[in-house]
Amino acid sequence: MELFDVIIVGSGPSAVSALASLKNKRVLVLDVGIVSDSVTHSLNDSISSLKKKNEINFSEVIGDNLESLNNINHEYLSPKVKAPLMRYISNKFNEFNKFKTKNFFVLGSYAKGGLSNAWGGGSMRYTNEDLAGFPISYADLKEYYDLLTDKIGIAGKNDDLQDEFFAEKNLLPAPKLNFLAEALLKKYKKKLRFFHKNNLFIGFPRSAYITSTKKNREIYDYKGLEFFKPYTNSIYNSKLFLEEIINENANITYVHNKIVTTFAEKENRIDVIAMDIESKSNTIFSTKRLILAAGCLNTSRIVLNSFKDYETQLPMLDNLVTYIPFVNFKFIGKKEDNEFIPPQLILLTKDSKNKYLCSMYKLNATLCGDYLMDFPLSIKGTLSAVKYLVPSILIMQVFYPDHQKSKNFLKLTKDGVIEISYEQEEKRGSIEKKIISSFRKLGFYSLSFLVKKLQPGNSFHYSGTLPMKKTPSKFQTDSECRLFGTKNIFIADGSVFPVLPAKNNTFTIMANAMRIGEIVNKSL
Amino acid sequence: MSPASPKEENLTREVEYIFKNLFPKKELTQDIKIQYTLFGNKLCNTGNNVKIRKIIDHKLDVEAIEFFLRIRDRENILTQKIHALIYLIEVKKDFYDEFYVEKDFLLKGLFTLIYFTLRSIYKFFKGFIQVRLYGII
To answer: A338: pLDDT confidence band, cut at 50, 70 and 90?
Structure first.
């Protein structure tokens, strides 16, 4: 049997980042690796322009099985994975995994590239303050953040948020703003004193979008299609980077259609058992080092299954999310400008306990049907709201930080069901009140009762099940993300985050995975 | 072409009535009818008991009834069907002007929104009365 130097499980951002540090080794990437079978499509303009030109392809936008209508009468699906051409992202995951959840929404992916297929591109670095519960600091991650910034291309600007996101030289130009965001930023600059005094800072996000020529990648031609059209090389997708690494390195093997079920560490090797999704037969692969990077839910399942532990409750973290709709009355009835990159701006704010990051969006990327029924008006009224009010609406997505709480956990049952319970929630509402009252000064109005609190799990930032600790114990990892009680098994995804700051965690997962890849590389 | 089943005939009658009530000046195309029927067929076992047939037979105000029912329970079958219809028309060029403005209309927009807010209040009460009077649920 062939003995690989390293087996990496998964093909999402963490797996591919770890792989980037291991190009000189004999690596096997085990993955389910579902790809979209609809690579040719007619989505070459914004949805609104296609509607106007009568060029909407019904099968691609609504779906022959009315996929886009899913949320009317089926369990809620995020707009990121709901449209017909985006169904490949989560389809097989739900087929092969059974969940029992309490107050928790689950989204997973067996797609090649994992959830990066539906990633918004938020690429913010963690500060030392963010890393406060971690046994590592910013200095441990900095070189990997820099490498990633250079490799994947991050658009942004050194502005009022640079203390939080770090001043960087290698940023690609920030994308253009739409009329609402432009007005907001202009007013904010006039009211800086008030906003700074109240711990409110607004600036451009750091996003993994290509906004100026970079290697062979195209400049992002934003058409608001991110919820409808798979794969573009202008926004980071780990599938495309994985394929690039495999093409350039003959020593890297990619095997798909495999669900890793368990591992067993022997004296001088690790056996990894993987089930073929078609034949359902098991294959054993052997390796000197194993890196689990299959996403928090998959990785936790593999670890618990390998230790045959059906009792332990692993901690479960996720950023809680609320939405605040704002209206700027000056823009009622304004003709829409659909060609811009979301999110447009970021608000950073703090209260006595926590730091919150808030992304600002417009409602242009989804079908109107997705939000139309949220207006408390009769149907003709909702249509007039879509037509005249929506151009003036800015949606703010507020992320809450999370930390371990005894009642929030993940466990595996003997029959393979992943149980997730999320009972202890942060109280939500007071930070939104502060934001709403401050934003009046910018001409943006909202009311507290309009704030929408999403069910836990909806940020998809699942983390913390195998947290890294200075002195780890069972089902924890050390500062090198080595699983406690093992010699050569490493965890490279969000499972190792001991706390979850209110910030998109993908970029830090990637930087940490690169770090682990290098640790593993040096150990061989 | 196989003949339509009684259920499909009902769904066709239903979409014709709802459509005419909501968009009296627009034309209901055959493909929207087919897609609506496809959606309606998928709804078969929801166990919801809004008597849509009564709304049609008595020529009631479907917009008013739907709004009243939606405020009470968003999961009701009439709201689901109208919601589906909106998705289906949204992607048609003929309905583009129902969803988008082509130039800036600040004042018209403001007055339209005020008008439809007041109209919605009226529709709510009208829906309440019709639901009670005709035993729609």
So the answer is: low
Q: What is the DSSP letter of A468?
A: B
Residue A339's pLDDT is what? 64
What pLDDT is stored for residue B3 in this prediction? Answer: 64
**Looking at residue A170, what DSSP letter applies?**
S
Picking from A296, A246, A278, the residue whose alpha carbon sits closest to that of residue A10 is: A296
| Cross-strand bridge partners of residue A403 | A499
Closest residue in chain A to residue B108, using alpha carbons only: A333
- DSSP character for A369? G
Contacts of A336 in chain B (CB under 8 A): 100-101
**Total number of domains constituting chain A:** 1
Instruction: Give the integer Cα–Cα distance in Å for A222 and A238.
Output: 20
d(CA A115, CA A100): 21
The answer, yes or no, to whether the previous bond of A343 is cis (omega within 30 of 0) is yes
For position A386, what pLDDT does the model report? 94
For B21, residues 6+ apart whose C-beta sits below 8 A from its C-beta are B61, B62, B63
> Taking the mean position of all CA atoms in its chain, how far away is CA A254?
23
What does the pLDDT read at residue A231? 82
pLDDT given at position A222: 76
Residue A309: give the domain boundaries: 3-523
> Residue A476 is encoded by which pair of tokens?
């924890």
Query: Could you tell me if A310 and A414 are in contact, meaning their C-beta atoms sit under 8 angstroms apart?
Result: yes
pLDDT over threshold 90, residue A396:
yes
Q: What is the CATH number of the domain that holds A228?
A: 3.50.50.60
Q: Which two tokens stand for residue A336?
A: 């829409």
Cβ-based neighbour number of residue A197 at 10 Å: 8
Residue of B101, B110, B126 best to disrupt the A interface, most CBs of A under 10 A: B101
Contact between A111 and A238 (Cβ < 8 Å): no
pLDDT at A10: 98
- pLDDT mean over A409-426: 93
pLDDT band per the 50, 70, 90 thresholds, residue A39: low
Structure-block tokens of residue B16:
């014709």
C-alpha span between B72 and B77 (Å, rounded):
12
Side chain identity, residue A413 = T
The answer to whether A115 and A236 have CB atoms below 8 angstroms apart is: no
- Tell me the nearest-neighbour CA distance from B15 into chain A, angstroms: 15
Q: Does B44 touch chain A (CB under 8 A)?
A: no
Q: Identify which of A45, A513, A522 has the alpha carbon closest to the alpha carbon of residue A238.
A: A513
pTM of the model as a whole: 0.94
CA distance A77 to A84: 12
Contact assignment for A333 to B105 by CB distance below 8 Å: yes
User: Pairing between strand A200-203 and A3-9?
Assistant: unpaired
Return the H-helix or E-strand segment holding A381: helix A379-384
Q: Output the six-digit token pair for A514.
A: 């690169």
Confidence of residue A77 (pLDDT cuts 50, 70, 90): confident
Token representation of residue A12: 């999402």
Say yes or no for a CB contact (<8 Å) between B87 and A62: yes
Phi, psi of A348 (to 5 degrees): -115, 130
Do A428 and A322 contact (CB within 8 A), yes or no? Answer: yes
What are B85's two structure tokens?
């219809």
How does DSSP assign chain B, residue by residue? Answer: -PPPPHHHHHHHHHHHHHHHHH-TTS---HHHHHHHHHHHHHTTT------HHHHHHTT--HHHHHHHHHHH-TT-HHHHHHHHHHHHHHTSGGGHHHH--SS--HHHHHHHHHHHHHHHHHHHHHHHHHHHHHT--
